[in-house]
Every structure is written in structure tokens, then in C-alpha cells.
Amino acid sequence: MKKLLRAGFLLYGILMLWLLFDRSGTTGAPYWQQVADNLNLNPFHTIGNYADILLRPEYYLEKWEAAAIYFWQARHAVINLAGNVVMFVPLGFFVPGVWEKCRGFFRTLLCAAGMITAVELAQLFSLRGSCDVDDLILNLVGVAVGYGLFRLTAKR
Predict the structure, then answer these.
(1) pLDDT single digits (tens) 49-66
(2) Cβ(37)–Cβ(139) under 8 Å?
(3) Which residues pair with 131 in a beta bridge?
């Protein structure tokens, strides 16, 4: 079972690296300006913006004067919010399954937070994404769900 978990974790890691780094975010601006533009350290800023788009469609439909723009933005909000949670559920399952020292809830969260922070920083400095504290928050929600699933299956 341990080998199966390790193999699953390896495949998950490869898939995640491909998904998280398979694009370039360069804009032609100076490097450090791009880094600054792709950094958000204000908790719940991005989450709040996406929630606002989803909760006030009439405002944005009027503001953008085109339903297509609103629906594109709403789709982007749902994908970002749900995707940042769902994509990290497996991490919450694999971390305690692979490393016995991380079997506790808080150790799992701490280990996952370290991994996620490393990925966020790598995305930022490689200009292949943004570094957003809200991504960390949403990712850790996914890790917590995955940990719950691990605990449910570990008892069996």
C-alpha cells in the first residue's frame, strides 16, 4: 500500500508541476516590475474579488455592458476558486499517507503549506504565474479536505 501511495504521489506531483508551470506570464515589462505585478500578499483580496463577481452579476453585467464578458469572468472566478481547492485535495491525502511524521492534521497542513509556498515563489520568480496568499488559503482548504478523506480511509 505504501508503494502505491508513493507512486500516486509521484504522478500527482508531476501532473501538478506541469499544470502550475506550463505557461509563461511575461509581459515585456522589466523583470522586477512583472514580479511586483504578480504578487498579492493581502489575504482574501482575490477571493473577495471573485466572490463579488459571482454574488453581484447584475452590477457587473451593467458595468461591462456585455453578458459574454461577465460570463467569462464568472467562469474564471469559479475555476480559480474551486480549482485551487480541488487540485490540492490529493496533497492532503498523500502527505500523511506517505510520511508517517506528518500524520497529524497540523503537521500535514504545515508540510503542505511549505510545499505550496515553494511553488508559489517559484511561479513568481520564474514569471510562470502569480504569488497570491489567497491561493495558499484555498490550497490549504483543499489539503484539509484531503486530510479528512485520508483519516476516513486510514481507519479502514
Answers:
(1) 999 999 999 999 988 888
(2) no
(3) 39
Amino acid making up residue 61: L
**C-alpha cell belonging to residue 98:** 506517505
Reduced to 3 states, what is the DSSP secondary structure of residue 39?
A: strand
Looking only at the bridges linking them, the beta strands covering 39-40 and 131-132 are: parallel
Q: What pLDDT was estimated at residue 155?
A: 76
CB 120 within 8 A of CB 107: no
Q: At what angle do helices 57-64 and 45-55 cross, to 10 degrees?
A: 90
Provide φ and ψ at 41, rounded to 5°: -110, 10
Contact criterion met (CB below 8 Å) for 140 and 109: yes
Is residue 1 predicted with pLDDT exceeding 90?
no
Cβ proximity of 124 and 39 under 8 Å: yes
Contacts of 21 (CB under 8 A, 6+ apart): 122, 123, 126, 128, 129
Q: What is the mean pLDDT of residues 94-108?
A: 95
- What's the rounded Cα separation, in Å, for the pair 43 and 90? 24
Report CA torsion sign: 99, 104, 105, 106: negative
CA-CA-CA-CA torsion sign (91, 138, 87, 26) = negative
Between CA 130 and CA 36 the distance in angstroms is 9
